[in-house]
Amino acid sequence: MATEKTTQTWLTQEAADRLSNELAHLEGPGRTEIVKKIEAARAEGDLKENGGYHAAKEEQGKMEARIRQLKHMLEHAIIGEPPASESGVVGLGMKITVDIAGDEMQFLLGSREIASGDLDVYSEKSPLGAAVFGAKVGETVTYTAPNGKSISVAILEAEFLS
Q: What is the value of pTM for the model shown?
């Protein structure tokens, strides 16, 4: 029986500000704009065969889902600089350097929202992310790829994004 690992999401102040600005835009001008699109499409007549209306309603649904996601993330995130990882344990918000079959690779463990730049992002729930999450630098862990192949990963470095 697998034990559930507890997670904390750290956001830099820059990431938190960026997400807060996105939320403010979606809740204000974004909602106003989508309501105008829906009203304009509704004025065109029969809603059953009105593609513009259905597209606007779908866009509205996606926007409301993003608003809920941002609110949840900002309410539950820890904003600021994460504590130094004295024990070298891999955690969320860290840039991980690994060796997979002789190829070195770097990625961010966490979510796209905290990423900056061209760094690949893996969730702690992905096969690779789950394998390295909670492991220590210097350890080699194994995970099963979607194709069923067992892959060994040596953890070389783990550092919080600055």
A: 0.59
